[in-house]
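Hi there. Long-time user, first ticket. I'm pasting a complex I've been working with (about 638 residues overall). I'd like to know whether the download I got is complete or cut off, because the file seemed smaller than I expected. Thanks.
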Amino acid sequence: MKMKGTTPVNSTPNDPRPSVLIHDPTLRDGHHAVGHRLDAGQLRAYATAANAARVPVVEVGHGNGLGASSLQIGRALLDDATMLTTVREALTSSKMGVFMAPGWGTSEDLTAAVDLGADVVRIAAHCTEADVTERHLGTARALGAEAQGVLLMSHMASPERLAEQCALMAKYGAQAVGIMDSAGHYLPGDVIERVQAIASAVDVPVIFHGHNNLGLAVANSLAAVEAGASVIDATARGFGAGAGNTQLEALVAVLDRRGFDTGIGLREVLSAADAAADHLMKAPPSIDSIAVAGGLAGVFSGFKCPVLEAARAEGVDAIDLFLALGERQIVAGQEDLIGDVARQLKAGSR
Amino acid sequence: MAAEERRRVAVLGAGLIGIDLAGKITRSSKLELALVAGRRRDSLGLRRAAEMGLPTTAGGVRAVVEAGAFDVVFDATNADSHAEHWAALRPTGTTLIDLTPTGLGTVTVPGLEGHRSAAHRHLNLVSCGGQASIPVLHAIAQRCTPTYIEVVSTGASASAGPATRLNLDQYIATTSAAIRTFTGAREVKVMVNISPARPAPPFRVAMTVLADNFRPAPVRTSIAAAAEAVRAYVPGFKVASLAVDPGRIQVAVEVTPSGRHLPHHAGSVDIINAAAVLLAEQSAAASR
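Hi, the file is complete. Here it is re-exported in full:
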């Protein structure tokens, strides 16, 4: 079956409204906010609550996905297998999702994840590098998982380029493709332009993943849906890298008001969000000064914690450091440069 | 040296790596490039090789076998094709230098195994990240006992061709295994970034070594000496940052191609090809 634009992808027989599939990476992207240190009890508590709220897909893992636990990006408290096993046990109706970027994880990690019960596999590449996903999208399909392709740091490429890259991933076998606003840089108009370009280039559902650096994650996600995206990422309380993600419970309410069906009950999702607030975080993500600077400079949201550390260690201003990283167009995975750039700033200011 | 004393070599693969390799071989006084073999007559690489005045073929490995005896054949294709290429070339008696990350041949880094590698007819050059990191990591491992080593390579989008992109899993597996071999570290983690940034960043390899009970000064001296040794065949190799703390050594190296033959971001291509040419020259010297 070919699906395009706002054609329902998960509509229920009783609900004639166009439907949107909510993909919840609270237990993956949220790891960026806590140095990848969620424990099994925390994973279990939220997965249980999200499952009860009928959230369709619950994604889990290190902030940068399978195989990414490292000194470079941050060592996770739990290994991939423990995280997946814990969440799998808690999910009776929700699907379990994983994320993997070739170069950080490998086919071996992917195979292990599907063996442990991952249903939905996201293969990620930086915005113009979709051809690195060919092998792993193929592997995911061969393993019988639902394979999706996503482009990171998508603000660095034009709508046409993103559309062409998404079409490549669809050709490699991705059953949904789309973009991540990894830096929280987009305004609604940027999202509409990009989602429309992608939707007209592919015959599979389009994914949008927002960040809230400029306070627009929910607005951008709504814009994405209205422009034809039908898979939207959202996390409880917005728990995620930097200023956080699109806030799940707010998005569910907004989509409901706008006449879209998510299959998620409002009371249940509010309970899940409360569970996230109780178990996962000291405080929900906020749009602090660093977040605004990072969003404007187009720097990966996940750099917030390492940037604050490097700025403190070298005695430089964290906002200056964020802006300097933006000038060099540093992408996720290049954490080794943060200290170097901080030292250069320090040397330059002497 | 007279031309007839040069070793007769062929390059298999006409991608980003193969074509720069062909150029480097033509500038060697010890090697004579007798054939560049690609798969598609209309490929940009083969056209470039022909423009350089080199003999070319679109017949792939079969054409190399048919073209008669070569002292050295370089495989600059992709990891999935390499085993087949070795099977076809092995009976011809040639030395095969593998630039793909299969790890099938004897894993070789100039200066570390080069002197012994002449005895082997099937050499593997690990990966560009391996060629950039292993000389430094090997030097560090002479001064301490690493318990964990992590290596993160970042290359510009334009420096990574289709085979490199398809072979990331093999790149990681082969580079990790080679680092274990050359350092004795039990746990090794390798990661790769391909950066879309414009202007394109230089090729950079960041290394972190965890080890107990080492003295910082000899570690620093060994790293500097290792970098100097690599600069003998890769002039654009430099230590970009170095921090030696209790229990932890962090080194980042960058490779910027010297000369006009490669763009500044193509350091990954520069270092693996420089290593390949040096090994072929050494094997030529050893076989006399």
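A couple of notes from our side: Residues 217 and 244 of chain A are 9 Å apart (CA to CA). The interface with chain B takes residues 68, 70-72, 102-104, 106-108, 125-129, 131-132, 134-135, 153, 156-157, 328-331, 333-334, 336-337, 339-340, 343 of chain A (CB under 8 Å).
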